[in-house]
Every structure is written in structure tokens, then in C-alpha cells.
Design a protein that fits this description.
Strands 6, 7, 8, 10 and 12 form a 5-stranded antiparallel β-sheet that branches. A 4-stranded antiparallel β-sheet has the order 11-9-13-14, with no helix packed on it. It has 493 residues and is α+β, with helices and mostly antiparallel strands. The protein is elongated. It folds into 3 domains: 20-231, no CATH class; 235-340, no CATH class; 376-489, Immunoglobulins (Immunoglobulin-like). Helix 14 packs across helix 15 (332-340). The chain has helices at 31-49, 88-108, 111-116, 118-134, 137-145, 150-176, 181-190, 195-215, 217-223, 226-229, 245-248, 267-270, 291-302, 315-325, 332-340, 350-372; strands at residues 66-69, 74-77, 80-82, 239-243, 310-314, 376-383, 389-390, 396-406, 413-419, 425-428, 440-442, 447-457, 466-474, 480-489. The structure holds iron/sulfur cluster (SF4) (2 copies). The site of one iron/sulfur cluster has 14 residues, from helix 13.
Length: 493
Amino acid sequence: MPDGSTPLPADDDAPLYAARRKVYPRAVRGHIRRIKWAVLILLLGIYYLVPWLRWDRGPGVPNQAVLADVQNARLFFFWIEIWPQEIYFLTGVLILGAIGLFAATSLFGRIWCGFTCPQTVWTDLFMWVERLIEGDRNARIRRDGAPPSAARTRLKLMKHAAWLLIAAATGGAWIMYFQDAPTVTRAIVTGRASAETYFFFALFTATTYVLAGFAREQVCTYMCPWPRFQGAMLDDDSLVVTYRAWRGEPRGKAKAMGVGDCVDCFACVHVCPTGIDIRDGQQMECIGCGLCVDACDDVMRKLKRPEGLIAFETLANLAASGAAAAPFPPGPARQQAGMAARRHMHLIRPRTIMYAAVLGAVLAVMLGAFLLRTTVSLAALAERAPPYVLLSDGSVRNAYTLKLIDKRREARRYTLAIDGLPGARLVVQDAETAADGRPVLVSVPDGVGAFRALVAVPPTEALPANTPIRLRLLDGEGRAVASADSAFLAPAP
Ligand code: SF4
Ligand code: SF4
């Protein structure tokens, strides 16, 4: 085949399993490539450097700005600290990410796949290293096809060593999001890290090495579910990478008469990281990276023809241009008619309005929950074995386990009050009593304190079998800062 790839068998003979055809993407220059480099540097910079950012939270608390402290069940993100009870914030962030992705896909097609997906970013980095060491497409094809030699082995070893270094840095950085970065780095390097740390370090290193070095486009084509259902988010007004067949066809040599603008040079195919030909139309394998746009623009510039034979375009515009250009023979008139038929992309459509509305609603709920989150909370768990105790003086007593969560860094004193039971006596085991007779609870700084409360009602009070009660936590000024609801059980009257 002119592009140097293996011809595909006819459909009838197609085997159930097709061996991978190795893709040798060529280097390309252009404005989309520059954008991709900028995004790659930004994302990798964030990934590798964020664990090293420090954030002073006071003594006894991790000073890493972003840390998932699994041992203490905390998530630290700069000034925000998420407790296990607040894991819904994480759920909210994931929902926001998913809806944001749907909205971005609906507007700009596979922008996630082509520019920001980790698989794309690391594969791009690995390909850059490969080109740096082994040369560009033609040199690699030639060398791989030649008999083994010492020079080839040396280059391959250098490439794999560089890939492994990047993979190790990637696996190591992942661990640093779960353990203090300087400490775990020292431990890994000096051989003093735990077995689990080495296991996950090796696992993420191997995953990066295999996925970015070997599996590459196969991850997108066979392993990732996203290309399968992203079609549901696309419509005729979404931007996708398209070949303007109305302008390019029929293909032919640059100087041939009566042919379109495509000179069949295969530059767009040779730069494609998934090895496809965008001129065959929309394909699931196309990750929307836009490198074929740069490659074709370069060819058009050299031929002194307008750029944009391959472009980010909506399918609606592609159809409109095709219809408008059809009556004209290949040439400037056809080009003009096709481009004039295009209309501005519709950003505001029912689908994008819906995504924006859901995004706004989730954001508002999360913001509200975040602003209203409390630093102190109280939970009361009634002990029901037995459900109540009859004391010798005829009083009825219930016991409760109290959990006092205080997210502040210093111990605080609170008093406990009870509502709903007139005449009840409230005692907390091993706790002091305040001047007003209420039990005093001292919180565990940045932790959970457990207490046992006993509530007794004298026989003089008429009691139903089940009375709802509320335990209130009062601060020094007597203001309720938290409360917990429960029930007081007594013998049936
Ligand atoms: S790079 Fe452009 S001119 Fe060359 S084959 Fe692809 S579409 Fe045709
Ligand atoms: S066809 Fe173009 S946009 Fe699609 S993956 Fe290949 S180079 Fe990227």
C-alpha cells in the first residue's frame, strides 16, 4: 500500500482476531501540535509537582497541600479537609467532572481524548522520546525492517531505559498523592519503604510503561469504553476532525487537471497516532488529536492552496459545504461556494443548555453544602440491650453512646443538654459537671470522641413507651453547636 501499511483482508476473509499493525507516527509541526505540547507540559507539570507543594496546617497534621491520607481517613486539598462523613464532596466532584466531560464532548468532540486523556498525554511523551532516540518514522521503519544489529540494540535499550525512567517517575508520583512526598521518596530510594509501597510503585510503573510504550492506540480502540458511548453526546453541531471531501475529491497529483485539493500524499495518515486515514470518514479510532490537520495544512501551504482541507468542523457545516460545492468543478469556485455555505457553530443548543443547567445545579448544591459544613457534629446511638433499665427508686434509665466529631485542631469544652424529657437527669460517665449541673464533654482535637450518656427519668413523670429526644451540644456561651436525635424507651403505661 502507498502508506507502507499491510493491506487489510476483504470482509469475507476477515479473521476474528486481527494482529496489531504497528503504527509509526511521523513528527509534525503546526499550531495544534503547539497547543498539544502546551497542554502536555501543563498537565504533566501539575501531576509531577503538586505532591511537592507544602501547606502549613499546624503541628501534628500533614503539611502536604494535596494528600489522600488513607491511614487517617482524610483528604487534604490545600485549605480543604474532607472527612469520611463528607465523602459526598468527592462524589460531587466526580459528577461535575463527568457532566463537564459530556458538555465538552458535545461542543468540541473528542477534545478529552485528543488533548487531555492521560493515555494520550503519556503516549505522546513516550513517542517524543522514541523519536528523539530512534529517529522519525522512516528511520524507525527502516531500522525495524533491517536485520538485528548492535546499533539497533543499543538504541532500543536506550529507548526502553528512558521509558522506564519516565514510568518510574509516574508510578512514584502517584504514590506521593497517598504518602508524604519527601518521606516516601527517601524511603523508596533507600529501600526502607513498605512492601505495599513497593508493590504499588511497581504496579503503576509497569502500567505506564506498557500502556504508553506498547499498547498505545489499542487502549483507545479496544480497552476504553468512552469512544463507544461518546457518540451519544455528539450531534451535527459538535466540532470533530473532518476531511472536507467536497474540496479534496477526486484525489490526484498536484498538477493534474480536474482533480480536488487532496494530492494523496498520505501525510495525514503518517502523522496519525492511531494509524487511520481520516479521509475514510468519521471513525471510532480517531481520537480527535488534530495532528492530521497540521500535516495537511503544511502540505497545502507548500502547494500554495488554502489551508483547512482537514479541519475541526461540524458535520452540519460539512454537509452544507458539500451541497453548495457540488455544482462546481474542482477549483477556486468550488472552494468559495463550499466555504460560503458554512455557518457559525451553534454553542447554545438544547443539549448544551441541559448540560449547563445540570452542571450549575450540581455546583450550587456542592457550594451550598461546602459553605454550610460544620466543624462540630454529634451522633447518639441508643443502647438497646436492654432497651431500658428500671432503677431501685423506680426511675427508668436509657443509655446512649455519643460520638463527638470536632474538626478543629484544639480540644474544646462543651456542655450537654437534653430536650423532650421533662425532669430527666443526664449524666455522662467519667465526665466533669459544669456549674449549671450539665455534663461537660471535652472534644478530641481533629478527631472523634466517644462518651457514654445515661438518661434517667424519675417515677413521678408520666412516660409513654417511646419519647423522641434531642441531645444538644452547647458552647461556652450556651449556643447549640450540634445536636443528635434519638428516642427514650420506657415500659408501656
Ligand atoms: S495530507 Fe492532505 S493532501 Fe495529503 S493525503 Fe492527507 S488530505 Fe490529502
Ligand atoms: S485521524 Fe487525525 S485527528 Fe484522528 S487520530 Fe488520526 S491524526 Fe488524530
